[in-house]
Predict the structure.
Amino acid sequence: MAECTGVDSITLPPEIFHNLDNTKRFAIDIGGSLTKLAYFSTFQFNVVNICSSDHTTKVMPLETHGDKLYQIAVQENVTTRLHLIKFENAYLETCLDLIKDHLVSPEMKVIRVTGGGTHKFKDLIEKKLGLKMDIEDEVTCLTKGCNFVLRNIPHEAFVYSKHADPEFKFQNIQPDIFPYLLVNIGTGGSIVKVESEDKFECIGGSSISGRTFWGLGALLTKTKSFDELLQLASKGQHTNLDLQVKDIYGGPCGSFRGDLIANCFGKSATADEEFSKEDIATSLLHMISSNTAHLARLYAKLHNLPRVYFGGFFIRQHPVTMHTITDNIQYFTKDTVQPFFLRHEGYLGAIGAFLKGAEKDSKKEIY
């Protein structure tokens, strides 16, 4: 149990930090709502090879068996791991204390930090950790992190199809990932056109994003937790509040499907009955997801980008969110733009900051 003045206590399970004694480097991404931590460590393991005298390989716990002699060879191997953790900014002071106790070593002088909250919390972080902050550009870190996971992590990017079996279809690692559109939806929304490793540009954004869902959800349902709101949205029926095309036209309208949303929360304007928290949360999630999808597909078409990758902690692999985004993009682009989701969606900035720090440290070692 770790406590700090002015906030509720936070309990971290003992397994949340792994291989702390072998930690080499870490970086932080501070958003408007969440702080993300990426730290690197080494992990040692042994591989036991048992070979018989006739060179056939067997798994045998004894050195001799019958008439054959077996040779047991133990090979020490060291692998590296990148660990990823998130926590709400309300607990930043408490978590900085844990980081100082577990991750800061005497030889460390600088900490790599990115994200919108870096300047706001700069003095606090440097005071708590006793390190100088090296602030990395947010868009650069997001792009670098996305490039890294797309090129190096098997089963990272996937498409979602609600009616398929399985619903998730993973993309193989591609030799050439460029160009693509990165839509990062967290507290705010940013849209980045990525043409190469070194050529990228933030071309848009949106103030209607993850924090909007959280804030409006809290006002409308009195539910303060983001994850609880998502749970409510899994149980509701958005058509109890949303006006669909068929509600206005009595069916499909020309080339538009009848089940497309014509107006979010439209039925609540004239209805006398009370709506459930579940229906409100679901309608709200559809509204934010639809807005995100339309922005993404318009920017993708404008810049002739056939692939869109979604990052940030808004989506969280929630079926309603992914289906709404996928359905809107594919329907309105006639499948010419493909939306992809990422398993490590919310950690792109932290991974990018970590990589930037590793590059800088390597250059110092060389020169």
